[in-house]
Amino acid sequence: MRLEDIAPVEKWEALERELHETSGLNACVYNAEGTRITSYTAFANRLCPHIKSFPAGIETVCAVANQHCANMVRESGTPYTTECDAGLVKFVVPIVQDGEFLGTIGGCGHRLPDSEVETFLLTKSLGTPEEELEAMAAEVQTITQNEIDHYIKVLQSRLAELTPH
Q: What is d(CA 84, CA 62) in angstroms, rounded to the nearest whole number?
């Protein structure tokens, strides 16, 4: 079974839009193989598209975080929150139908109040001067764990509407 068997891509994109519009986060739906199923893109900040503009950024930051999160929720069946190697928060909710893991939906691109954007690491990975990265990092919004928990509950509610058991 695939995500598109449960709901058309347009409905998954509507969930991404809703999450971004209510939270300001990067919002993505990934299938079980870790591939995005929509073309919707709305970034939480200027730093994320900068990271994604480099193959090294995709490979060492975004892809690693996506794979790690997918593995965690595939095994646990429960939402998972972590930070990517850039120091930005990432949370995902598993999408499961009839006991089968089909993918994830979640958000990223803000930072927890006690976290810092890892500009030194990004400079080494991307080659971008640290001063430029610090200027972008200064614009990254904070998000609390309570806010993350709220968005997780909202996503779980929306998923329950799409994937009745």
A: 7
